[in-house]
């Protein structure tokens, strides 16, 4: 789309921190954890220090043979240094391949095999307890972010190598490979270019620039291996915002940090915002300064939106929800205010970004698309990935004359607003929208911390529920909440931590349905 292309130089991850430090050298990045590759930096580092760190580790990678066009897989224990290492890899001209710390060893080995003898950056804990021994045979070299291990080279042993300059790469060259959520099977490896990332950056950067002052901190709790991190992070540091980077979403620790450094803008996963509802009533006011809450990963529920907005004391505060996907970036967006209340239509996910993204909904059966007859959602954006690594045919199946099929079902109103009803694979016969049911249950039952509607063994819709502190579900309140909803099976109560989740805290609905089906009676 033309506004995504004008004057684009690409995202340039390898020099990102150099450019940010040149503009705002003393600006801080504030962490809730220590960096495995540089624990000496502590939890507050300047952009100048981080630019030097990226340069240092790029030079260490160069010293072991990483060169332009090579692939470097990063799969280590969770931390912001995953994102910093990605920038270091890109600085050499090589292509970082980021694999979530949550992936099991067999899946990691399969994805390394698909990449084809890459360098592997990991750590001792992963090698000792999670990864199969075959990763050594599948990798050109194994490098350790922390610890020592036979057959691997530690980054610590490479300290002091000669610094090398950044290698510029064309904007249409692969700049980063991330993986899809894996909610429907083995993750796919999504190939992003400098151009596609810059195309995603622009609409989001415009929103942040107009939303909060430059001096206000931006807080980010996003998977360090997710493509969203590599637009959220550049927006903050290039615009001059102090950046708060969270690894954990525990409300107690988040509340402590936000009380000390009140953010003006927060980007996080929907399930993290759900956990942070308790912060709205915290007497220290950790959310009091927030002008904008923002989420792009999954459905956000009206109750959560309203609760968080009540926790802020800023005039004109908003909750921004963007609809998108790892493969294409943000496509449509809308904002909510307190005036929308707790019962607004959460299925309305907004309108496309003018001049940047496009949306259409294609009929499945030839009949006009409507709420009663939802169609396939297809989108257009220059932020779209260029292929799935090793599975280009699979990528081609989702492209139709330049339009990308999202795998979602929905419709558009006469005013152009896009309504998302369900994922194609999650559709349950006789149920118009599982997501709409979940929205209503959250609003009607404040004790719920999660509810997922899935098909049961007999095909009937079954709600899986999690409650605050695992308290027993109130049966009378439940019966009252579902009286006007489509017929549902009896609710199944689980502990939140037992639900299968992706790296971005999405619930793996298909896996959960399988677990429910395989569970013994009672």
TrEMBL record:
All copies of domain AMP-dependent synthetase/ligase, residue ranges: 17-385
Gene3D superfamilies: N-terminal domain of ligase-like
Name of the protein in question: Class I adenylate-forming enzyme family protein
Coiled coil: none
Organism: Streptomyces salinarius
């Amino acid at each position: 789309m033309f506004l995504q292309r004008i004057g684009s130089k690409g995202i340039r991850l390898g020099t990102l921190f150099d450019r940010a430090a040149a503009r705002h050298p003393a600006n801080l990045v504030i962490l809730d954890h220590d960096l495995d590759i540089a624990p000496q930096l502590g939890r507050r580092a300047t952009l100048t220090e981080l630019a030097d760190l990226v340069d240092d580790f790029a030079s260490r990678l160069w010293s072991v043979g990483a060169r332009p066009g090579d692939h470097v897989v990063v799969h280590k224990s969770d931390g912001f240094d995953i994102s910093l290492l990605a920038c270091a890899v890109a600085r050499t001209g090589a292509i970082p391949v980021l694999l979530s710390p949550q992936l099991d060893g067999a899946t990691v080995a399969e994805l390394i095999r698909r990449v084809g003898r890459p360098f592997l950056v990991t750590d001792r804990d992963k090698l000792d307890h999670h990864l199969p021994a075959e990763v050594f045979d599948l990798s050109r070299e194994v490098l350790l972010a922390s610890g020592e291990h036979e057959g691997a080279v530690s980054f610590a042993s490479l300290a002091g190598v000669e610094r090398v300059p950044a290698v510029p790469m064309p904007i249409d060259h692969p700049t980063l490979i991330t993986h899809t959520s894996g909610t429907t099977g083995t993750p796919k490896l999504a190939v992003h270019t400098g151009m596609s990332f810059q195309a995603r950056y622009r609409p989001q950067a415009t929103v942040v620039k107009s939303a909060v002052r430059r001096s206000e901190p931006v807080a980010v709790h996003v998977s360090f291996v997710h493509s969203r991190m590599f637009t959220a992070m550049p927006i903050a540091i290039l615009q001059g915002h102090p950046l708060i980077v969270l690894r954990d979403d525990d409300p107690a620790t988040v509340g402590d940090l936000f009380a000390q450094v009140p953010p003006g803008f927060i980007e996080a996963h929907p399930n993290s915002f759900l956990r942070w509802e308790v912060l709205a009533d915290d007497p220290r006011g950790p959310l009091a300064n927030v002008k904008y809450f923002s989420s792009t990963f999954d459905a956000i529920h009206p109750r959560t939106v309203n609760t968080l907005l009540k926790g802020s004391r800023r005039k004109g505060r908003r909750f921004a929800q963007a609809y998108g996907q790892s493969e294409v970036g943000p496509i449509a967006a809308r904002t909510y205010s307190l005036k929308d209340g707790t019962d607004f239509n959460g299925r309305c996910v907004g309108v496309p970004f003018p001049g940047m993204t496009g949306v259409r909904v294609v009929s499945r059966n030839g009949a006009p698309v409507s709420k009663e007859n939802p169609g396939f959602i297809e989108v257009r954006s220059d932020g779209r990935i260029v292929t799935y690594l090793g599975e280009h045919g699979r990528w081609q199946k989702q492209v139709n004359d330049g339009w990308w099929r999202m795998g979602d079902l929905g419709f558009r109103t006469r005013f152009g607003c896009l309504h998302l009803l369900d994922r194609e694979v999650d559709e349950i016969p006789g149920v118009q929208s599982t997501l709409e049911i979940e929205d209503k249950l959250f609003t009607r039952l404040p004790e719920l911390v999660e509810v997922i509607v899935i098909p049961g063994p007999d095909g009937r819709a079954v709600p899986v529920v999690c409650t605050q502190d695992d308290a027993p579900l109130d049966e009378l309140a439940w019966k009252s909440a579902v009286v006007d909803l489509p017929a549902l099976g009896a609710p199944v109560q689980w502990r939140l931590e037992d639900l299968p989740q992706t790296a971005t805290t999405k619930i793996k609905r298909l896996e959960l349905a399988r677990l429910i089906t395989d569970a013994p009676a009672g």
